[in-house]
Amino acid sequence: MPMAVRPRSTGIPPWSSSMVSLSSVPVRMWFKFNTNSSANRIPFLKAIRSSQAQASASTVSRKQRRPQNVDGEFFVDHTCIDCDACRWMAPQTFTRVDEQSAVLKQPTCEEERLKALQALISCPTSSIRTEKPPSDILHVQKTFPLPIDEQSVPGVYHCGYHSPKSHGAASYLIVHPEGNILIDSPRFTERLASNIEKLGGARYMFMTHEDDIADHERWSKRLKCDRILHSLEVDDSTANVEIKLEGSGPWSLFEDIQLIHTPGHTEGSVCLFYTSLDILFTGDHLFMTESGLDFSEKFNFYSVPIQLNNVRFLLDLDFRWLLPEQGIQNGQLNH
Description:
The chain contains eight helices and 18 strands. The two termini are about 20 Å apart. The strands form five sheets. It has a seven-stranded mixed sheet with strand order 5-6-7-8-9-10-11, with helices on one face. The protein has a five-stranded mixed sheet with strand order 12-13-14-15-18, with no helix packed on it. Strands 1-4 form a two-stranded antiparallel sheet. The protein is an alpha+beta fold. It is about 25% helix and about 20% strand. This is Metallo-beta-lactamase domain-containing protein. It comes from Carya illinoinensis (Pecan). Pfam families: Fer4_13, Lactamase_B.
């Protein structure tokens, strides 16, 4: 069975290693170096400026249009990290070429353009660009969070605004009569926070595992919601999480919200099963590809056999919708 590949998030964007900042340390060195001698000042300053110019040129180069894009308004630049978000958000426009996204076809109608702009906003690295600033971008920002399917799964939303800290993973919002639930962390932005508040805010922020916590603390403070994470996933950055799950569960958040311990991808991975709407939120434990359900063996950080056993367990559940953080092609299943 082919395994999808997703690198483990370290909290540092993987493209950052090639982007050099010389704005702070060299300046401090310059003052120290030149305290007693003016003779060294000019060549040293020239060296700093030369290094800054090279770094700036590298950044500009990476922001240029990839040649794999078709001509037209939208394009993807060289900073793409291949997270695949744009390809399932706007599949008519974006595709995968040479291990990065590219524009396959320019939007030809308002619906396609809207989806392309929503993908642009959601891109974790701002790698999707337009030849000119889109005049309707503020209108598009107001569309988030995006309803998954208002008829079949009312009150369930895709937050957009994917974060580079979680390698572009998707996050979701459940609007629930007993309190809304934010599932994993989108990139923090006040505009999205305001839109979520209009839907009733959030009572809980459920984090499936340690990889995709992103801006959890800012969201918790802004929405005044309690965070939930398995204790096996807690580290220094999540030590102050309000609710730490212990043991192997399962746990009931509400009568129709079950939390299921599914170790495998990580030791403390937990899935959320929304039973009244038959939706399974799986984090990185299980996802969909064009060929069907799959999981990542290469980027398993605990146990492949245990993960496989837990995948088999999940398949026995009565769910019709699968909402993972990566690899979404179509959330609805004939299950």
